[in-house]
Amino acid sequence: MRYVRFFAPFAILLAAAIVLSACRTAATISDYSPEAHQKAAELKAETLALMTKSDEPYARHRAEAEALTTKISAAYEVAASTPRNELVTQQWAVMKDPERDLYGGYVKRWQASGRITAAFRDEMLPQVSQAFDYILCLEVAKKSGGQCVAGGTP
Fold it and tell me: What's the pLDDT at 143?
């Protein structure tokens, strides 16, 4: 009987901590935004289309690349200003980072080298596509309550 009295408060605290933890985890995902989903899909299409032109001189596509970079930065800013949207914000940050191996790094390399080889482009296209798929999956998962895997499937 003594043990029950001694451990009962700890059991109540443990149960409360578990409930609070579950509530906090559920609150870390923002609401689904059809606009954010649509914008991510559009940016994916624009990005992949631009990348297919990267075997041509960067100078020929500078304005297009700069405009797309601005749009991707805007998508990051929207994600970052949305409460409880950390995962999506992190993915946009990686996508736009010129020191990483997705869109930002790809454009930096294209600008520095003048053009991208077809072999490198063909290697990078699926990687960038999968990164966009993951962003799209994270957006859809907000609506469905599902989870995403790295390939972008809820």
Answer: 87
